[in-house]
């Protein structure tokens, strides 16, 4: 099995950024939406000037932000990806895609019609983050969904050449169970946090389990 793409999301401090900089992550996510993990783009810009992130790509996560708000963040951080984690209209996603040189990822909260949603967004979105549906929360919930549906989502993503990240409650203890479903990508935030900070030991344990699994399968 090839190593899945890995995204560590919710980097909320300089120290978090130092912790994840030398990890196996391919993508680092910053939250520009209401959340305990919300960051300020000017601060992130300063952190990124001081820390070598070893070529990892930057994902900026928004929930129902305006085009102007996204552009303001882009002036500080030339992110590689804009992740739409709310109910943004397709017209806004298209406009951002055309104006900024970024990939567009659409977050979908997993439910019975997620496959249809993936198909309807496949042209505009370069990738999907399928996350758990938790009332009153958009993301970073630490809650898993039933991963037996992952192969169906993977088939659709491959059919349309979209990236696909499985999110929601992934942590060192359950990563092998998720890997049994051969995800294209994995996205996690709270599962590598201790006392609200990204934790090096948890990251090491997660990556060791993931790389061992990949080696033997
Ligand atoms: O992480 C947040 O606090 C958050 C808040 C609002 C919108 C999105 C948010 N996170 C987006 C992510 O991509 C997270 O990595 C994803 O929800 C998984 O989080 P977790 O269950 O904690 O691993």
From TrEMBL:
InterPro entries: Aldolase_TIM, PRAI_dom, RibuloseP-bd_barrel, TrpF_fam. It is an enzyme of class 5 (isomerase). The keyword Amino-acid biosynthesis applies. Residues 7-208 form the N-(5'phosphoribosyl) anthranilate isomerase (PRAI) domain. Its EC number is 5.3.1.24. Keywords: Amino-acid biosynthesis, Aromatic amino acid biosynthesis, Isomerase, Tryptophan biosynthesis. Pfam families: PRAI. GO terms for molecular function: phosphoribosylanthranilate isomerase activity. Gene3D superfamilies: Aldolase class I. NCBIfam families: PRK01222.2-1 (NF002301). This is N-(5'-phosphoribosyl)anthranilate isomerase. It comes from Metabacillus fastidiosus. The gene is trpF.
């Amino acid at each position: 099995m090839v190593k899945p793409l890995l995204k560590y999301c919710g980097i909320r401090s300089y120290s978090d950024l130092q912790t994840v900089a030398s990890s196996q992550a391919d993508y680092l996510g910053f939250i520009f939406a209401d959340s305990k993990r919300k960051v300020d783009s000017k601060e992130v810009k300063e952190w990124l000037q001081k820390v070598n992130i070893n070529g990892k790509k930057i994902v900026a996560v928004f929930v129902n932000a305006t085009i102007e708000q996204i552009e303001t963040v882009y002036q500080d951080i030339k992110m590689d990806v804009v992740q739409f984690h709310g109910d943004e209209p397709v017209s806004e996603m298209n406009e951002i895609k055309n104006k900024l040189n970024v990939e567009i990822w659409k977050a979908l909260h997993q439910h019975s019609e997620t496959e249809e949603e993936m198909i309807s967004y496949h042209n505009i979105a370069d990738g999907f983050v399928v996350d758990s549906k938790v009332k009153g929360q958009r993301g970073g919930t630490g809650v898993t969904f039933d991963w037996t549906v992952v192969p169906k989502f993977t088939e659709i993503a491959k059919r349309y050449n979209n990236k696909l990240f499985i999110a929601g409650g992934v942590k060192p203890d359950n990563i092998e169970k998720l890997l049994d479903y051969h995800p294209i990508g994995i996205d996690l935030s709270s599962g590598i946090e201790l006392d609200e900070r990204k934790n090096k030991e948890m990251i090491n344990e997660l990556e060791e389990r993931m790389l061992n699994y990949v080696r033997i399968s």
